[in-house]
Structures are given as structure tokens and as C-alpha cells.
Amino acid sequence: MPNDPMVAEILDNIRRVFQFVNEHSKRVVRETGLTGPQLWAIKVIAERAPIRVSELAKRMYLHPATVVGIIDRLEVQGLVSRTRSRTDRRVVEIDLTPQGITLVAEAPEVFQGVLLKGLGSLSMDTLQEIAGGLDKLVTILGVQETPPVPIVLVEERTLAKAKGKRRG
After folding, report:
1. Predicted local confidence at residue 161, as pLDDT
2. Helix or strand run (H / E) with residue 36
3. Closest CA to 149 of 42, 57, 66
4. From the centroid of its chain, how far is CA 134?
5. What local confidence, expressed as pLDDT, does residue 147 receive?
6. Name one GO molecular function term (predicted).
7. Three-state SS at 39
8. Sheet hosting strand 92-96, strand order edge to edge
9. How many CB atoms lie within 10 A of CB 105?
10. S-S: 74 plus which of 1, 34, 49, 80, CB 3.0-4.6 Å?
């Protein structure tokens, strides 16, 4: 195979990314009991509270329906509250509860936050190189037409399976 050392380096870097995401997600669950996306939502809410679901979804790069599911679970855990806007009663705003504020103060950085900060520090040329390389990788794997599953769904399924094994 041409460029075997280069191919090995690419595969090693892909493994490193997967390993980081996996280990970081496990750490977040272990330390907070939340999935990465749930913690990310709480951190965004802490920065912008009160915040509308549409604004939260935009800041998390997720579909609003996905964010509503995250908020539902956080509300059940007593970490966030929903209230009607005083200026427009049709609007629901999300805020942290005292328990949510405490959790945010003690929680680790979320994977998405680390990634977004890192990507935000790169030049447009570098971002275009990364995007181009990832597009080629997606093509090599033949998954161009596969809709991306939000990380939130993958992490929550993993957490649910882990909880089920502990009970059973």
C-alpha cells in the first residue's frame, strides 16, 4: 500500500480521537451522572440564562427537537426549569435551578466545548483543509448519504445500557 507510514499515522489519529471522546464521555458520566450533551446544554444555559430552546439548539449545533429531549431529562433531574417569558407568554425560557448551578461549577469541560474552542482558534484555511479531509474520509467509507446521529443519542443509549446492566 502506498504511503504506509502516512496511512498508519491517519489511523492512529482517528483512534486517538475515538479514544478521547470515549474516555471523556465516561468521565463526564462518572463525575456528573449526565451525558456529554446534557452537560454541554447545562453549560450553555449557565452562560446565557435564561435562554430559549431555539437559541440553545443553535449554540449546540443540534436540532431543536433533540434539545427539547435533553431539556426534558434535565428537568426531571431537577437541574433546569422552564418558565414563560414575561414579555411574550408564548415563549418558554430555560434556566438553571440551584442544583444545576452547583453541578456546572463542579463539572468538567465537555468534549464539544473542547472541540469548538480548538476549531475556533484555527484559520479558515486550516478549517477548510480539515473539512476537505473529513469529506474524503466520509466518501471512502461510503457514508455520504447517512444522516449523522447526534452524539447525544449515542451517549444516552450507552448510558441507558450501562444503567440497565447495573440493575440486571
Report:
1. 58
2. helix 36-48
3. 66
4. 19
5. 79
6. DNA-binding transcription factor activity
7. helix
8. 51-52, 92-96, 80-84
9. 8
10. 80
In this structure, how many other beta carbons lie within 10 angstroms of the beta carbon of residue 41? 29
Q: How many residues does the chain have?
A: 168
The 8 Å CB, 24+ separation contacts for 162-165 are 162/29
The residue to which cell 407568554 is assigned: 89
Asked whether the beta carbons of 93 and 82 are under 8 A apart, the reply is yes
Backbone conformation region of residue 77, classed left if phi is above 0, alpha if psi is from -120 to 50, else beta: alpha
Rounded Cα gap, residues 118 and 116, in angstroms? 5
pLDDT tens sequence across 22-32: 888 888 889 99
What domains, with CATH codes, occur in the chain?
5-165 (1.10.10.10)
Q: In this structure, how many other beta carbons lie within 10 angstroms of the beta carbon of residue 59?
A: 18
Q: What is the pTM of this model?
A: 0.67
